[in-house]
TrEMBL record, chains A, B:
The organism's taxonomic lineage, starting at the top: Bacteria, Bacillati, Actinomycetota, Actinomycetes, Kitasatosporales
Organism: Streptomyces venetus
InterPro entries recorded: A-glucoronidase_C_sf, GH, Glyco_hydro_67_C, Glyco_hydro_67_cat, Hex-like_dom2
Span of domain Glycosyl hydrolase family 67 C-terminal: 433-656
Signal peptide: none
Gene responsible for this protein: aguA
Record-linked SUPFAM superfamilies: (Trans)glycosidases, beta-N-acetylhexosaminidase-like domain
Coiled coil regions in record: none
Domain Glycosyl hydrolase family 67 catalytic: 124-432
Protein name: Xylan alpha-(1->2)-glucuronosidase
Pfam families: Glyco_hydro_67C, Glyco_hydro_67M
Keywords linked to the UniProt accession: Hydrolase
Length: 659, 659
């Protein structure tokens, strides 16, 4: 019984799965073998492709040979791995389980005609980690400040609308299909900030979550849920949420059992505790290991996992207090707890020590807890990187993070044994992601989560080939031209040299150099008339640099060896300090800000030249957003340059206009 | 038929009309003569006082002599004036109209026992201007950003709640009574920013306004309405709101006729047009005189007045553009229109050229349009002066404005022939004004509106004597100690030397030195490492100083003659510039900010000593707000000082802690 391919609603962009992407597969003779619900999904996909492109698909060998054989049977590939080979004119994909076979099919789709040429030796493909998750910061009820989707820039939520389940399960299935095609296998369906309506998803509203799980399951995507640590009180009526209290433990065990009755393959819980006002174990004098293990114990009998977020810091800091350093917080809180977390408790760590700035060092927590399973969290939704009004392809940033080696041996991509997680950038927007080119971020995340050492530019090639299967070479060149360097361009015209922040408080769009300077959020640049930056050295600063293992602790400790792009994150330096580039800090600020705007102007020009190659609706929307990006980039340039010129008094060497 | 005194809801503070304030009147024998609805109000007041304090009131002379005779009869005092005299043991109040008699009664109440001592020569009292209005920036529907009351710090609205009329007409009558006792005779019942729900008050919801008018009328308070200039389109379905279009004029005539059918003594319209996004005549290439005269013509047959606000400026300015000066805008827009406004059109001018900052020069528009009737608008609601969490008695500021003489002859108080207007600070709070001591602002406004040359400290004495009729001398001393200098204290710890702004954008509470520096709002300080302030001189700056008549234009033009407190409003000066006080600008900034906080600490100490004298509820609320004021004042001190220290590099002479 093949499962029909979901039909997206009228007007919704197919993203990287247009029909034409299936041309090579759809024109062949294919044999599918095996019995598993996901094999039916595979069958549905191939059948639909054959319907369009004239091929044929069968479930039992009879009139071979076949161009493509997809079948269960191989051992040792795990639930998600697959093997591919080609000989004698037949391409063979085998897997141990249905999900592996589905990923194998999408591998063949990506290869296109190349999948059916020549002979090749067998290859095996397995994801680096079992969990590749998108966290949706979607609220069920519209939050008075944060709206339907916190930090969402792609319309409303795919799952919720104004307090209710949205009910568009066809679109949810379509979403699951896109995720499967890039390798994502888990979705957390609600915001980590769990407000009143959302808390109830755990109990009396679990049926709405089950509906989502049913829609996502055929594409191998498991459902997770953000829960409130205070649930035993607010939902259970208990007087406490103390993780060591027996009634609390019983309550979680019972609630979790009922979750699994509704969703047998439920993935687990995501928890933001003792963070930015969310409740947590500190209220009871318990540790975060106590808190995580409480939920881990409830999930363990059912095979679930708790993702416990490490984003814990003092968000009511006094800006006058220079001894407290938010960057230190996660390490200081969690490293002493190494070894105390249950086997099915994952510590979910943001990739940097602050909060998804355009440039941060890699969190020193990753690799510092050998007996704990970390998941590494990145942010596909562009909260601090242009909010999907600016083009900012994050593949190179994520790749740098994943390739970083905290010590000599393993890189972050290998250390993330708890999985890779991205905050989703998708919503009910017709292009899924608001900015059509931001689809590339979602796709790239999935592929890097599957294979963290993938070359991001090659992933972008995949995305281009799938999204625009019939496009001529100039389009691919144009897309690379506007995407490849877009993250560095964004970095150039915003906060310089790793210092971060300098954004409008609250909504985080657009510049405000002092916006967070005298705030309680622990986010300062300390610019004065002589210099700028945060001294995080061990010798004279907050000691944060000392949280790294060697060689990083030594490299970051000295302003002479600290990489330019992180200089102001680690050091307070005079404006005349000479960078490795040979420029002074102040001239670097001026130059990069002028360059950044020029690069946006150039990208806009390139995009204008692609008008006939990408479809009118897509072209118009991107063109319109380039206008806003350019306006905003100029605003950044002029505010940053004026601020530092007024403060430093140092004129631009090239005499350009500063206000 | 005497009108009963309105009974405020349980728990609502009597403000300056506690029963005990009527002791002197209530213990006497009083004769009331005359026939007028407001004479019944007077009768009701005296009867209620007599019921409490054992006196007697009659309507026809029979068994004299009387201690007090209140009667209509005198000619030539106008609708609101009254004469008082005392001889032969009888105090006599006469008036030409019922409102005058009511004001005469409250005059006697203010005098207390002194009203019944000795003999005095006849005195006449008349208000300086016919209109003494409170503008309520109350929304009918809760606005998504501004809430129920825009810039309201006293709970909800007295008139509206969540889209509906609140319906507490007893409280509205009680409010009218308080207003009559300080001399206010007009209330505009909705926000000058007229949103969709509020627009309909003019037409199908006029009955709700009529209910308010009925409740306020017995205390001589007329009702006004803010209307949308686009009403003919949004309510009338016309294709245009062009003021010269006949169908538009007809529409307004008809709508206004129906308003007067519902409210025969309706006061008129208040209009904010072409300002901060509100619609106006500019859209049709018409002048503001055209716009105002359109509404004036509709109101004229019924005796109504249009209050046309002069708050017109470019709120989408480019911060890079130093040639545009928001301070110039009202003068530049309106002076060319002098002589073009209809007789019943009043130009309502904010007292300063910007927007109710703690220190501004007087608007040069006042006095510059000899053929136009200006009303002067002040802000009792403390948007920029501590939002009723800080004690900031504005009497001295308003008095300075009213005594200012734009030319040699008339002062602002005399020039305001269109009346005096305050944005109300009252709401449904049990203390009416959020901060109990902010009642003094409401009272002081009314009394200064009646008599602009009154000594504010004497008005404060009145307020204290009425509000605390049985209080011992130390309470009066304590209240003066915490109120008299509170405006200057607030000025000390906030933005220095007239430069203004430096507040958090949006809500305007708390410091943000650069909060409006790179904004489109025309509100800049241009601080750099060398100096600070806005050059508004004619010689080298925006020319704003030249909008004044002599001697002010000359005085403000030179930094040598410009008053210290306005120096940075008119000039950009180096931090080392020496003030008339002998201090440098930078040292002045440091000193005033340290002093301001010390003064708040001292006021808090004084207030603590009044615990037994003012009632527990009031004392506790004020004490609690002093904690917040002190916290906030310290935040202001430290942010302002740190900002200027980081920028100037000049250390505090006295070596105090700057961050």
């Amino acid at each position: 019984m093949s499962l029909p391919v979901p039909v997206p609603p009228e007007g919704v962009d197919p993203a990287w799965l247009p029909s034409a992407a299936f041309r090579a597969v759809g024109g062949r003779r294919t044999l599918i073998r095996g019995s598993d619900p996901l094999v039916e999904t595979v069958h549905g996909e191939v059948a639909e492709a054959c319907r369009r492109f004239g091929g044929r698909v069968v479930r039992a060998a009879s009139d071979g040979p076949y161009d493509l054989v997809l079948g269960l049977g191989a051992d040792g590939l795990g639930e998600e791995g697959f093997a591919v080979a080609r000989s004698g004119g037949t391409t063979t994909v085998t897997a141990s389980g249905g999900r592996g076979l589905l990923y194998g099919l999408f591998h063949v789709v990506r290869l296109g005609e190349a999948a059916f040429r020549g002979d090749w030796a067998p290859e095996t493909h397995r994801p680096a980690h079992a969990l590749r998750m998108l966290d949706h910061w979607d609220n069920v009820a519209v939050h008075p400040v944060m709206g339907q989707v916190e930090r969402g820039y792609a319309g409303g939520s795919l799952f919720w609308e104004d307090g209710r389940a949205r009910g568009e399960l066809g679109r949810v299935r379509t979403y699951g299909r896109l995720l499967a095609a890039c390798g994502v296998n888990a979705v957390c369906v609600n915001n980590v900030n769990v407000h009143a309506a959302e808390a109830r998803l755990l109990t009396d509203r679990i049926g709405e979550v089950a509906d989502l799980a049913d829609a996502l399951r055929p594409y191998g995507v498991r459902t997770h849920l953000s829960v409130s640590f205070a649930a035993p009180i607010v939902l259970g009526g208990l007087p406490t949420a103390d993780p060591l209290d027996v009634s609390v433990r019983d309550w979680w065990a019972g609630a979790t059992r009922r979750v699994y009755e509704a969703i047998p393959d439920f993935g687990g819980y995501v928890v933001k505790a003792d963070s930015e006002g969310q409740p947590g174990p500190f209220a009871y004098g318990r540790s975060h290991a106590d808190g995580a293990n409480l939920l881990a114990a409830a999930l363990e009998p059912h095979g679930g996992t708790v993702h416990w977020r490490a984003f814990v810091y003092d968000h009511r800091q006094d800006w006058r207090d220079r001894t407290t350093d938010r960057a230190r917080a996660a390490y200081d809180h969690f490293v002493p707890l190494d070894g105390e977390f249950a086997a099915n408790a994952v510590l979910q760590v943001k990739h940097g020590p602050m909060d998804f700035q355009v440039r941060e060092p890699v969190s020193p927590l990753i690799g510092a807890m050998p007996s704990t399973r970390p998941a590494v969290e990145v942010q596909a939704t562009q909260e601090y990187t242009g909010q999907q009004r600016h083009v900012c392809w994050l593949g190179p940033m994520w790749s740098e993070v994943l390739r970083f080696r905290p010590e000599q041996d393993l890189c972050v991509g290998e250390l993330a044994r708890g999985g890779l997680v991205a905050v989703s950038n998708a919503g009910d927007d017709p292009f899924w992601t608001g900015h059509p080119l931001a689809q590339a971020n979602l796709y790239t995340f999935g592929r890097l989560a599957w294979r963290p050492d993938a070359e991001p530019r090659a992933v972008l090639d995949e995305w281009i080939a799938l999204t625009f299967p019939d496009a001529p070479a100039p389009l691919a060149d144009g897309l690379h031209a506007v995407l490849d360097g877009s993250w560095r361009t964004y970095e150039k015209y915003t906060a310089p040299l790793g210092v971060g922040w300098m954004v409008q408080p609250g909504h985080h769009y657009g510049p405000s150099v002092d916006g967070y300077e005298y705030s309680p959020w622990g986010t300062y640049h300390f610019a004065d008339r002589d210099g700028v930056g945060v001294d995080r050295s061990a010798a004279t600063g907050t000691g944060y640099a000392g949280q790294y293992a060697k060689p990083w602790s030594e490299l970051y400790e000295s302003r002479d060896t600290c990489p330019d792009e992180l200089l102001l994150f680690f050091h307070h330096v005079p404006y005349g300090h000479v960078l490795k580039s040979g420029k002074t800090v102040i001239q670097h600020i001026y130059d990069t800000h002028f360059e950044g705007v020029q690069e946006v102007e150039e990208a806009r020009r390139v995009w204008a030249g692609l008008a006939d190659l990408v479809g009118q609706g897509r072209h118009a929307r991107v063109a319109e957003r380039y206008e806003e990006q350019l306006r905003s980039a100029r605003e950044w340039r002029d505010q940053i340059n004026s601020y530092f010129f007024r403060k430093s008094g140092v004129p631009d060497e090239r005499g350009r206009r500063i206000y």
